[in-house]
Amino acid sequence: MTESEYTSIVFDLDGVLVEGAHTVPSVYRRAAADAVAELGVESVSDEAVVKLGDPDDIELVRNQCERLAIDSDAFWREREAAASAIENEQIRRGHRMLYDDVFALSELEATLGIVSNNRQATVEFVVDWFDLEDRFDAWFGRTDTIEGFERMKPDPHYIDRALEQLDVNPEETLYVGDRESDVEAARKAAIDAAYLRRSHNDTIELTADPDHILSGLDELAALAAKK
Question: What family, per the record (predicted)?
């Protein structure tokens, strides 16, 4: 692959297109409390809320749901919906904005997509709220199921789905992310990877080996044709 042959580019969302590296833990904790209340649990300890809201350990969630005598799949759907409602409102109030260099993407001729570990409802909200429908051809977040959560990057599942929907050549596709798990997911999907350095990750020493390291999205103009 030469540096000017990318005909399609797929982007992570949080920390790449939208300010903030991820959904903050307090959102998930509020969402967990809302979800158990919705399922009829009148009182839950702060410790249980932390475990139920932890987005990185699904076994803690299953164990806590069993102790509370609620269905873990039902809880998870409620939790995801509540988290999206909370975060979407924060975005609506201007707490998270697009990075300024996102507007450089309008210069690119490449087919563009989004694949995020964030929830599908928030990905869709971001695309709509910031009027990105005309710039991106497909956008994927995780589904609102436990299975969907377990398929997040570095699993290539959602990247594979995006490539299929976009109907692009993987050999001419670049994935742009801000985490090593993004590089790993791209490798598993058999596409090239670019690691984007922002203020939240500019001092991280990489163990992964991306094809490109970027300091801004405007640098993609050198990797894909302009209009």
Answer: Belongs to the HAD-like hydrolase superfamily.
Tokens representing 190 are 């058999």
pLDDT for res 4: 53
- CB neighbour list of residue 179: distance below 8 Å, 6 or more residues apart: 12, 15, 153, 201
What range does the domain containing 16 cover? 8-20+97-222
Q: Which residues pair with 14 in a beta bridge?
A: 18
Give yes or no: residues 77 and 130 share one domain. Answer: no
**Which of left, alpha, beta for 92 (phi over 0: left; psi -120 to 50: alpha)?**
alpha
State pLDDT tens for residues 27-80: 999 999 999 999 999 888 988 888 898 767 888 899 999 999 999 999 999 999
Peptide bond into 55 cis (omega under 30): no
Tens digits of residue pLDDT in 120-169: 999 999 999 999 999 999 999 999 999 999 999 999 999 999 999 999 99
Measured CA to CA, the distance from residue 187 to residue 183 in angstroms comes to 6
For residue 138, being part of any structural domain is answered with yes
Assess if residue 3 is contained within a domain. no
